[in-house]
Write a structure and sequence with these properties.
CATH superfamily of the largest domain: NAD(P)-binding Rossmann-like Domain
Number of strands: 12
CATH topology of the largest domain: Rossmann fold
CATH class of the largest domain: Alpha Beta
Shape: globular
Number of helices: 14
Mean pLDDT: 93
Number of domains: 2
Radius of gyration: 20 Å
Length: 345
């Protein structure tokens, strides 16, 4: 399993497009599946147009809209699943016939999707990645990496450092630096709490991260969501690891006095400095009339908390309220956060 392996990349949005372009720049020849005819057509005409802080380049690629278009009999060593979480189960099931007998899938999703994927493909054939770099698709086939070099954390679900994990790491080093983890579940939970707080609250309010953390209500709700996720992880026996930001300063301690609580809120407010313009994907999805990944974020926390016998009222309310926005019975509005805050008084 070297760089000569046959790779399938499914989901050529902001993250998938950058990964695909960097691998092609490094001399690999992945096959791309877009699930979007406009993206397929753009890449066939112009290649993948990649912009980074260091260079801009167009690279040609073999691209199809669906797996049904892949030439008959072709099979792959690895399939990178880089679509949104709510499409990953169907994608994994459809990918299975296109894998070699020892082939595997690699999950790049926000949230915890591995248990869901394991319902359609054997758990031993799943590797996970936690993405810690910024990118977006500015137009079909046009991608921008917004940071020069950040990190990918990769791991086997059982924590082993296997030859195939090392091979995956070697390949993905062409994109950004890679860390091989013996506790990828802990890293995924570390990122989960960030996404639960940022993505859920910004989606409800219609705000960027900077706008959210500039308000006392946003700061308080951010802390409560983090605390609920940390408590749920502890109840499930998960050893957390920091991802995106260190989670420990965001844990609410009931013993803190008012001065200490104000200092803790200020730590949240300071997130506006590096992340002020971030518009989370859940808000972008709602603005486009699409389903969010909330079921795999806040909704997953609710499921795990229920299984552990604990209560997570803020995450439960976020899940319900975003579901109402998706159903058209609630609007995106900052007033949603005022309603949420009633739960934590």
């Amino acid at each position: 399993m070297r760089d000569s392996q046959h790779i399938l990349i499914e989901g050529i949005g902001g993250i998938g497009g950058v990964i695909a372009a960097e691998l092609i720049r490094a001399g690999l020849q992945p096959t791309l599946i877009t699930s979007n005819p406009a993206i397929t057509d753009a890449i066939r005409r112009n290649g993948l147009c990649l912009h980074t802080p260091d260079y801009s380049e167009n690279v040609p690629a073999e691209v199809f809209t669906s797996l049904d278009e892949v030439p008959a009999g072709r099979v792959y060593d690895a399939a990178y699943l880089v679509m949104k979480a709510n499409g990953v189960i169907e994608a994994a099931a459809a990918t299975l016939p296109h894998l070699k007998p020892d082939g595997y899938v690699v999950s790049f999703q926000n949230g915890l999707v591995e248990d869901a994927i394991a319902k359609v493909i054997d758990r031993s054939r799943i590797l996970s990645v936690s993405v810690a770099f910024g990118s977006n698709m500015e137009a079909p086939g046009v991608y921008r990496r917004t940071t020069s070099r950040n990190m990918l954390y990769i791991g086997e679900l059982d924590g082993r450092i296997t030859p195939r994990l090392q091979a995956l790491g070697h390949t993905l080093e062409h994109v950004v630096p890679v860390t091989l983890s013996t506790n990828i579940t802990g890293i995924l939970w570390g990122k989960l709490m960030w996404n639960c707080a940022v993505s859920g609250l910004c989606a409800l309010a219609g705000w960027t991260l900077g706008e959210l953390v500039a308000t006392e209500t946003g700061q308080i709700l951010f802390l409560h969501i983090y605390t609920e996720v940390i408590d749920t992880a502890a109840a499930q026996g998960i050893t957390l690891e920091a991802a995106v930001v260190d989670y420990q300063p965001f844990y609410l301690d009931a013993q803190l006095d008012s001065t200490a609580q104000a200092a803790q809120r200020q730590i949240v407010a300071d997130l506006a400095i590096p992340y002020s313009d971030v518009k989370p994907s859940s808000l972008q999805s709602l603005e486009r009339g699409r389903q969010t990944e909330t079921a795999f974020l806040n909704g997953y926390v609710v499921e795990q908390a229920q299984a552990a016998g604990i209560s997570v009222p803020v995450n439960a309310a976020v899940t319900r309220m975003i579901g109402e926005i998706e159903a058209g019975t609630r609007h995106i509005d900052p007033a949603n956060l005022d309603e949420l805050k009633l739960l934590v008084r």
